[in-house]
Write a structure and sequence with these properties.
The chain contains eight helices and 25 strands. The chain has a single domain, classed as Lipocalin. β3 and β4 form a beta hairpin. The strands form three sheets. The chain has a 21-stranded antiparallel beta sheet that branches. By secondary structure, it is mainly beta.
């Protein structure tokens, strides 16, 4: 058994350092093992809740999270080293914590409706939920230009580095099914119908300044952003021209908006399995949002710059002493017009476009000891846009009793090893409530050092109760697998064979007549 544990742990940590990325987003890994809450099926459809029936209304799960690519408030603003009652803006210290491309992410998730029930070895469920994810990106080159001027990065400075803005909001209708194949193995699946509300997707967002030539400055910019929503139509003719206009037209009739509520349709699937390997060890795996897409058809718009491949060149100002004022103003206006023309944006209507959610992969292990004590390990990674990212390992201890469940642990990343999590769940009659959170920090528990925070809670109404860990499963399974030893069939004996005679009667042996009669005298 120790060999199995070593193989599992070694594989998890090797994967962590091979695929880990500092681009983290919201994580609620600690909920993966909370079978007291029906929301556990959102992470693995094969792991069913402890209740035989549940109902969630609006507050099944509410999650709010804010994350960065690694920087914190304390990196930019902290106490002045001399004047302790003053704050200091530390741009150099902030820049040292940045990567080439950085982001701030905000997410919000809420269950609108959910119910499920158990029939025999089958569990059926339905969930309706709302999701909002948004991310703003910025380049380290902005601070390179501020702090070092034209000499930064050998004169080549990127102010936009491919990404700018991502917003994704949609409603999920999910139907789930799980079945206990036998006392050890359970499998489950979920089909999800996605309805898009609003989306902003950046294909390209590049802006580069080149100071390598001492006699001129060149600039090159490219912008390509796709957007769609069910509310209104975005129209931009220009940002800098005299007749420029930028409007967001919303219809006055609410029914017009509702008519488009189901136009942005998508599909997604979840698959999962769990297996009781040993009496006190269970393994599980799931793939969430596999083969997914959302087709955006309502008010689909493309935002592009007017001259995406044009290079702007500024060669300085040359003029005679007598006309320096006139020529200076003329050439500055010419430069501004060139920049405005190259970087100006407009919109154009497009038929539709398609986006994809990241596919999430989970591998879990649970070790039971002392009846109500558990150790959990979870490996989690994401696959999207042709790359593997946000890979990490989480370890938790949990206590599961009839009325109280308590869990705490830590998420490990190769770039950040300290990300604590905690969760408490209470069972009060037919009600079940849980509250939890995750912290992402580079240093300690100082709020100013956080680079990510998740807070989540849930309320469910449940009926029926099954054990969190059925210790009889292993015993019953092993009994079924033990061969039945057949007893030898004994032949019944007759009374004559069993009774022993009191004395043996010897029959007289008949004598043989002699062949020669003369011998008898």
């Amino acid at each position: 058994m120790k060999k199995i544990y070593k193989i599992i742990v070694s594989g998890l940590f090797i994967s962590l350092f091979l695929f880990s990325s500092n681009k983290s987003i919201a994580q609620k890994d600690i909920l993966y093992f909370l079978r007291e809450a029906p929301q556990v099926m959102q992470y693995n459809p094969a792991i069913t809740p402890c209740s035989n029936f549940y109902l969630s209304l609006m507050l099944g799960t509410t999650d709010i999270g804010v994350h960065t690519s690694g920087f914190s408030y304390h990196d930019l603003i902290h106490k002045h080293p001399i004047y302790s009652d003053s704050l200091q803006l530390d741009l150099e210290g902030f820049r040292s914590q940045l990567s080439d491309n950085n982001f701030i992410n905000f997410n919000y998730d809420m269950d609108l409706l959910g119910f499920g029930f158990k029939i025999g070895k089958n569990y059926f469920s339905y969930d309706l939920s709302l999701t909002l994810d948004s991310r703003v990106n910025f380049s380290k080159g902005i601070f390179d230009l501020i702090l070092e001027g034209s000499g930064a990065n050998n004169g080549n400075i990127r102010l936009l580095d491919g990404h700018l803005l991502e917003v994704n909001s949609y409603i999920t209708n999910a139907i789930g099914y799980s079945r206990e194949i036998n006392d050890r193995l359970s499998i489950g699946g979920k089909i999800k119908l996605l309805s898009g509300i609003a989306n902003i997707h950046t294909n390209e967002a590049n802006l580069e300044l080149n100071f390598k030539d001492s006699e001129k400055i060149s600039a090159h910019g490219e912008l390509d952003i796709l957007t769609a929503n069910i509310i209104g139509d975005l129209s931009i003719t220009s940002l800098f021209k005299e007749n420029a206009s930028a409007d967001f037209i919303v219809p006055e009739n609410l029914n017009t908006i509702l008519d488009h509520a189901m136009d942005n349709v998508g599909l997604s699937f979840d698959l999962g399995a769990s297996y009781r390997l040993l009496e006190n060890l269970e393994l599980s795996a799931s793939v969430v949002d596999v083969f997914n897409f959302i087709s955006w058809n309502t008010h689909a718009t493309q935002i592009i710059n007017n001259k995406p491949f044009e290079e702007i060149v500024f060669e300085g100002i040359t003029s005679g002493i007598d006309s320096i004022e006139t020529n200076f103003e003329t050439q500055i206006n010419s430069l501004v017009d060139s920049i405005s023309s190259a970087l100006d944006i407009r919109t154009q209507n497009i038929p539709s476009y398609t986006t994809h959610l990241p596919m999430k992969i989970y591998f879990g292990a649970t070790y039971n000891f002392g009846k109500v004590n558990y150790l959990h390990a979870l490996f989690n990674t994401k696959i999207g846009a042709g790359r593997i990212y946000d890979t990490h390992i989480s370890l938790f201890y949990s206590l599961h009793t009839r009325f109280l469940s308590l869990s705490f642990g830590n998420m490990f990343r190769s770039t950040n090893l300290f990300n604590p999590s905690a969760l408490i769940s209470l069972k009060l009659g037919t009600g079940q409530i849980y509250v939890g959170g995750n912290l992402h920090t580079n240093k300690d528990f100082n709020v100013a050092d956080y680079n990510g925070l998740d807070v989540f809670m849930g309320v469910n109404f449940t009926l029926g109760k099954s054990k969190y860990w059925d210790q009889h499963k292993w015993t019953e399974t092993t009994k079924k697998q033990q061969p039945i030893l057949e007893k030898p069939i004994e032949t019944p004996q007759t009374p004559q064979q069993t009774e022993q005679p009191a004395e043996t009667i010897q029959q007289p042996t008949p004598q043989t007549q002699p062949s020669n009669p003369q011998e008898v005298r």
